[in-house]
């Protein structure tokens, strides 16, 4: 699942942070390897599929809203979900991962997902933050007031940028929904067989 961060395609290239660069490059291929392991280890039940889907839906909504607000490399986005968390796309992805783990009913999958987040996504987020700090003068103030992942209760600032469905389609966020449907369908097939 791709991320459409505020920082564009390669935020860590200017920082010299080698692992952040490597992590950005391997996260998609690693995701395909994980998918094979995931389907092999998954032990879904009807209840786990329903519960997992109920956790995935808010994650998809959050990612969709964030992708309709973000204007990567053009301006620091602090509207919409970005007024509550600096990384709504990653938070949405964590919600999707939690939904996938619940649907699969495997502690091994939970452990692998947590390890992947720590080893891959934490360095990627740090690299993106360095890029944003260098690119947008207001980023330091924004970062002081808005949490990295877990959302704050009240919105930050007064930027009132409207949601843009054109940005949603441009960032191809619909692919996350398609991916969730495919995964759940394969799990249903596994359950039936």
* C-alpha end-to-end distance: 27 Å
Structural class, by secondary structure, is mainly alpha
DSSP summary: helix tally: 7
Radius of gyration: 17 Å
The gross shape turns out to be globular
Identify the notable features of this structure and list them briefly.
193 residues; globular; 0% strand; 7 helices; 64% helix; mainly alpha
Structure description:
- By secondary structure, the chain is mainly α.
- The chain has one domain.
- Helices cover 64% and strands 0% of the residues.
- It has helices spanning 18-41, 46-67, 88-104, 107-135, 139-145, 165-170, 174-192.
- Helix 1 (18-41) packs antiparallel against helix 4, helix 2 runs antiparallel to helix 7 (174-192) and helix 3 (88-104) packs antiparallel against helix 4.
- The longest helix has 29 residues, at 107-135.
- The protein is globular, with a radius of gyration of 17 Å.
- The two termini are 27 Å apart.
Q: Can you summarize this structure?
A:
The chain is built from seven helices and no strands. It has helices at residues 18-41, 46-67, 88-104, 107-135, 139-145, 165-170, 174-192.
Give the SSE map.
Layout: H1 18-41, H2 46-67, H3 88-104, H4 107-135, H5 139-145, H6 165-170, H7 174-192
